[in-house]
Backbone:
């Protein structure tokens, strides 16, 4: 036979494709009509739920697929309950057990205790909670109406712009009632801390507290939970507790957010010095392609890696930060160094400025869970142990 022409080949391929489509149609609509075509009509009447990307899932606490509660985890939970039930909780012991992660069931009260919001004395806790919650809503009554005043309107406008950008993939944070909560918390904090005021990035720091305190009332599907369905008193308590715990956190890192953000500038410089001692290859690779640490690490310090990790990982990370002395300030530096070295192979494979910066600003942590965060923290602890007490820690 003569060699087929291009047009005849295309025509043959089209005919074959048409026949395959016809067979597929017959198979679906005639051979399996009861199992395929009929349920389709039923599915159309079901409410459509948003598909939430893995990176935005809150409740997926372990991406490695481990069973919900192992014998070891149950034993740890019992130990936490025993500590928390004591008339005077031993905070040092609580920190020691919290370092490797806090069970979800006891995380809210443990965070309140470790942040210094609740007293160790069990009898005093209810009284302190009531007083602090009343105090917060006293601030709301006293100051929140001033958000439209000339002096504060720029602050409020910036907060109002930033709130919808906070975890945009999670429906929970797009609810008007939740956004109003965040606006009140951030505005009250800003006017009570005039040395810094509101700075972009602080809005991210509310979310872990809000989610953890909400988890006391929601067991699953946190991403879609309608907060307005909760009793008003419960909503108010979650809001007040989130405010006070975020305030306690920021008390330790406020120089990150004062004019020119000197705290962050110093931490980025410290990271550069630390990496030059830990991994000279990475450090020289950055120098070769003119990558400045400030170009990627400013956000790591400003947002405490919240833009780099799924929220579920941030919550696990903060278990350790609250257990570690100066966790949000000093220990975070070593976590950032460990995080950078985690991507060593990918960094050294990039041979241009743009590729390196794209990697460092979009690290692929979408599938991370407790296991990955645990390994990161272990490496950070090793680095701290090796370098923190060295006299020439930040000097060559």
Residues:
């Amino acid at each position: 036979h003569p060699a087929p022409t291009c047009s005849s080949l295309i025509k043959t391929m089209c005919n074959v494709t048409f026949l395959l489509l016809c067979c597929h149609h017959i198979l679906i609509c005639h051979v399996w009509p009861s199992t395929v075509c009929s349920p389709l009509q039923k599915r159309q009447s079901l409410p459509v739920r948003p598909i939430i990307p893995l990176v935005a899932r809150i409740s997926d606490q372990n991406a490695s697929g481990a069973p919900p509660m192992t014998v070891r985890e149950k034993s740890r939970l019992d130990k936490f309950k025993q500590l928390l039930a004591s008339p005077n909780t031993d905070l040092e012991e609580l920190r020691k057990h919290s370092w490797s992660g806090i069970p979800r069931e006891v995380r809210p009260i443990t965070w309140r205790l470790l942040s210094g919001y609740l007293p160790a004395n069990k009898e005093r806790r209810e009284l302190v909670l009531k007083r602090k919650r009343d105090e917060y809503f006293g601030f709301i009554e006293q100051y929140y109406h001033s958000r439209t005043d000339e002096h504060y309107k720029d602050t409020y406008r910036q907060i109002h712009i930033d709130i919808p950008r906070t975890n945009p993939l999670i429906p929970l944070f797009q609810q008007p009632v939740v956004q109003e909560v965040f606006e009140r918390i951030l505005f009250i904090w800003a006017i009570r801390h005039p040395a810094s005021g509101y700075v972009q990035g602080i809005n991210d720091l509310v979310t872990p507290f809000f989610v953890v305190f909400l988890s006391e009332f929601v067991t699953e599907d946190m991403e879609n939970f309608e907060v307005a369905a909760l009793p008003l008193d419960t909503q108010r308590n979650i809001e007040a507790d989130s405010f006070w715990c975020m305030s306690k956190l920021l008390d330790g890192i406020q120089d990150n957010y004062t004019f020119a953000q000197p705290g962050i500038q110093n931490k980025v410089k410290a990271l550069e010095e630390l990496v030059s001692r830990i991994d000279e290859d990475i450090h020289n690779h950055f120098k070769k392609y003119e990558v400045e640490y400030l170009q990627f690490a400013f956000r790591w310090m400003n947002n405490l890696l919240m833009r780099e990790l799924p929220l579920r990982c941030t919550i696990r990370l903060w278990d350790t930060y609250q257990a570690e002395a100066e966790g949000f300030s000093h220990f975070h530096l070593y976590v950032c160094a460990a995080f950078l070295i985690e991507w060593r192979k990918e960094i050294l494979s990039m041979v241009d400025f743009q590729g390196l910066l794209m990697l460092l600003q979009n690290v692929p942590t979408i599938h991370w869970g407790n296991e990955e965060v645990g390994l990161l923290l272990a490496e950070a602890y090793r680095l701290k142990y090796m370098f923190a007490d060295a006299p020439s820690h930040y000097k060559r």
Q: What stands out?
A: Residues 4-47, 61-66 have pLDDT under 50 and may be disordered. The chain is about 60% helix and 0% strand.
